[in-house]
Design goal:
mainly beta, Beta-galactosidase, Chain A, domain 5, 6-stranded antiparallel β-sheet, 5-stranded antiparallel β-sheet, carbohydrate binding, Galactose-bd-like_sf
């Protein structure tokens, strides 16, 4: 805790001694269980926030488990407004890149009080910017950073596998647990906006100066990497093109795209310029990395061929880097947009028996049971996409599912 600060900081240093046997770490997390009677409103993003059912509503006979235990149909909740809805913690997951702050608000009796999990940096998260993880869910429960380490949406490939005789150490955090209040009981929007502002303030102070552990590297123990990424695709342009808004990151040495299943080391990501493709990655812990990138709208993964060594206080200038996407000829046709999202494809309406009212118009892909809708919509067989006639927004299902 810091004097005058409305909250407290949490971090952990995980270490595996070289004399220890092999160890697999599937999850490492810090969870907070809040007062069930008071904290009833949850906020995960500007669009994803609402009053939530109580934990007791999930238990029989008030609730009925569905295909997996986390998804429950609310049959007779204490508050009738939730009757007939599905509660499922996975519906509130976020990508690491979007998960800066989430939490709960307590209303009456008394002033409105907010409890927020603020993540000032993603450097200690596993799987890079697109790794999806849990946030807050009915309990009321908040998971820090969603989780420090977790296998959700990836599986065993992202388990941290530490070998016998391997010395390993990693600093998780700090994250900031922020508390705010408002005498206006129903004014939750003000608390959420204040929490977002606090998240930005915490990010601006990273790396923190106050952790006493020598394992947490301060600014003077870190370096920077700069450069410019260009795309060379002669079937699109005769000139090298700037990799506009590319995701560019440093992660443990590996293969192109291996950052997505990397969990033992640190990762440092940024977005390239929207005009010239230049990038700057600051506050990088000293170490040896590969530089990885991917460009929205362009197929493939980029990896710089040479390892990048960052020294304390050092500045690595890589200059111009060229990414040549995989090609065997000009594009004849394509289905969708290569942006690592399925947002452009057809997302069906949910079964009206299993809905979450929050996602009826936006983010419909979060609804429960959409995998069953595939066989219902295409009972005779898989759909046929006819080039030049079909359109992926209505003729291509957003997920690969079984019948």
């Amino acid at each position: 805790m810091l004097r005058g600060s409305s909250g407290f900081y949490c971090y952990a240093v995980l270490e595996h001694a070289g004399s220890w046997p092999a160890l697999n770490i599937t999850e490492a997390r810090l969870a907070f269980k809040l007062n069930t009677a008071r904290f009833t409103y949850m906020a995960v993003s500007d669009e994803i926030q609402r009053y939530m059912p109580r934990a007791a509503d999930r238990d029989a006979p008030r609730g009925m488990p569905l295909a997996y235990k986390e998804a429950v149909l609310l049959l007779n909740p204490a508050e009738p407004q939730f009757k007939g809805e599905v509660d499922d913690k996975y519906q509130y997951s976020l990508d690491n890149k979007d998960n800066a702050v989430h939490g709960w608000i307590a209303g009456a009796p008394g002033p409105a009080v907010g409890f927020w999990v603020v993540t000032p940096s993603n450097e200690f998260k596993t799987g890079g910017p697109l790794k999806r993880e849990l946030t807050s869910h009915v309990g009321p429960t908040s998971l820090t950073v969603s989780m420090f380490m977790g296998t959700h949406y990836v599986g065993n490939d992202i388990v941290a596998k530490i070998k016998e005789g391997e010395h390993w150490k990693k600093v998780m955090g700090p994250v900031f647990i922020y508390l705010n209040s408002n005498p206006e009981r129903g004014n939750f929007h003000t608390l959420w906006e204040d929490a977002k502002a606090q998240a930005e303030a915490e990010a601006s102070k990273w790396p923190y100066t106050f952790p006493e552990s020598p394992d947490f590297h301060k600014a003077g123990q870190r370096g920077s990497v700069t450069g410019r990424l260009l795309v060379r695709d002669r079937f699109v342009s005769g000139k090298d093109m700037p990799a506009r808004r590319a995701y560019v990151g440093l992660a443990a040495p590996g293969q192109p795209g291996s950052w997505a299943i990397e969990s033992k080391g640190y990762q440092f990501w940024t977005r390239a310029s929207a005009t010239c493709g230049s990038f700057a990655i600051g506050n990088v812990r000293a170490g040896v990395y590969n530089l990885y990138a991917w460009v929205p709208g362009t197929l493939g993964d980029y990896m710089h061929t040479a390892a990048v060594t960052v020294d304390a206080g050092g500045a690595v200038a890589l200059g111009d880097l060229v990414f040549e996407p995989p090609r065997s000829g000009p594009t004849l046709w394509e289905i969708g947009v290569p942006d690592r999202s399925a947002a452009e494809f057809f997302v069906p309406e949910p079964n009206p028996k299993y809905v979450n009212k929050l996602f009826l118009s936006k983010d419909k892909y979060r609804q429960y049971g959409l995998w069953d809708r595939y066989a219902e919509l295409y009972p005779a067989g898989d759909p046929v996409f006819t080039v030049g006639e079909s359109h992926y927004s209505k003729d291509w299902f957003f997920a690969h599912v079984t019948r």
